[in-house]
Design goal:
Blueprint lengths: L2 H13 L12 H4 L7 E6 L4 E5 L5 E2 L4 H13 L1 H7 L13 H5 L10 H10 L5 H16 L4 E2 L1 H8 L3 H12 L7 H12 L1 E3 L1 H12 L14 H14 L5 H7 L4 E3 L4 E6 L3 E6 L10 H14 L7
Antiparallel strand pairs: 1-2, 1-8, 3-5, 4-5, 6-7, 7-8
Helix pairs in contact: 1-14, 3-4, 3-6, 3-7, 3-12, 6-9, 6-10, 7-10, 7-11, 9-10
Bound molecules: glutamic acid.
């Protein structure tokens, strides 16, 4: 067993059975996922893979999809346009907050909260709804190097319950911050949240960003190197919901989590660390996922703020 594999196995063993948290239940599909599942994986920028537990179980990408759509918007328009139209600041409020829009003159502030992600999906260059969707799905596939696909049952579960997000999309539209039909934007955004991926595939996405945009498994340059720094900054700011500051303070690495129970943590230049387990804490981060990812980063001595 390699040292890296040993570290991953140890972190998994230490926290895969931890108690606490509960599955997201506002999306019916997620409520029914086995709460005992726990996977952990590391993919390095050299293409080394280490994994433990349920690391090949495919779970809902949810909010982590916002990273992929952000990457596409950066490729389409560049960093300045994304900063001007969407923003690069924490909202200080929950990920689906309407009040955050009201407080900030209807600017979403971050592409990693729902309002900003719906606006980002609307911004992507596309000829029509299907083109918009295929381009976003294509970016998920390129970053992971995997045949990512929509889960019809999950998509159905989300599309039939996403009234709050539709409300956000209309608010964006009335403020001039929706760049296509708002219902098209929210439908495509909902689809992008409804794909499935494994912990290893998620770690590969992280390794691609960590490697300056080159997927270490497929060896393809997916996005420009200069955009990776912007993605990592956005992740630091808003990636862990309302506890992004606490995560920076305690772990010191960019991360993005989703209500499907996944967490992607990135060590720039070195690796992607991905963890998955469905039970979430009060702000929406996987309880075991946070502990497993933090244990790997801590054991390997990675913290961007460590002098
Ligand atoms: N599809 C979910 C929503 O829009 C994603 C939320 C998340 O993972 O933060 O509410």
């Amino acid at each position: 067993m390699t040292d890296l594999q040993e570290t991953v196995a140890r972190a998994h063993r230490a926290h895969a059975g931890d108690a606490g948290g509960k599955n997201a239940d506002y999306i019916p599909y997620l409520k029914n996922i086995d709460s005992t599942l726990a996977g952990l994986a590391v993919v390095t920028t050299q293409g080394e893979i280490a994994q433990a537990g349920d690391s090949s179980f495919r779970f809902a990408i949810e909010s982590i999809s916002k990273v992929c759509t952000l990457a596409l918007a950066l490729e389409d328009f560049g960093a300045d346009v994304v900063q001007e139209k969407i923003g690069a600041d924490p909202t200080g409020l929950p990920f689906n907050s309407v009040m955050a829009l009201e407080l900030h003159g209807d600017k979403p502030l971050s592409p990693l909260v729902n309002a900003g992600a719906i606006a980002t999906a609307s911004l992507i260059r596309a000829t029509d709804k299907e083109d918009r969707w295929q381009r976003i799905l294509g970016m998920q596939r390129s970053l992971t190097g995997a045949d990512i696909a929509l889960c019809d049952a999950l998509n159905e579960s989300e599309q039939t319950t996403n009234f709050h997000n539709r409300g956000i999309a209309w608010l964006l539209y009335s403020a001039g911050s929706a760049y296509c039909d708002p219902m098209e934007a929210v439908e495509v955004y909902t689809r992008q949240c409804s794909t499935l991926l494994s912990t290893v595939e998620l770690a590969t996405m992280g390794a691609t960003i960590a490697a300056g945009g080159r997927n270490p498994i497929t060896r393809k340059q997916v996005i420009k190197k200069e955009h990776c720094a912007r993605i990592l900054a956005e992740m630091t700011m808003e990636g862990m919901y309302d506890s992004s500051g606490d995560w920076a303070y305690t772990v010191g690495l960019p991360a993005k989590s989703g209500v499907g129970g996944g967490i992607l943590t990135i060590v720039p230049g070195v690796m992607g660390i991905a963890a998955f387990s469905p039970p979430l804490d009060d702000v929406g981060n996987s309880v075991r996922g946070q502990r497993m990812a933090a244990a790997v980063a801590g054991a390997l001595g990675y913290n961007l703020y460590q002098c």
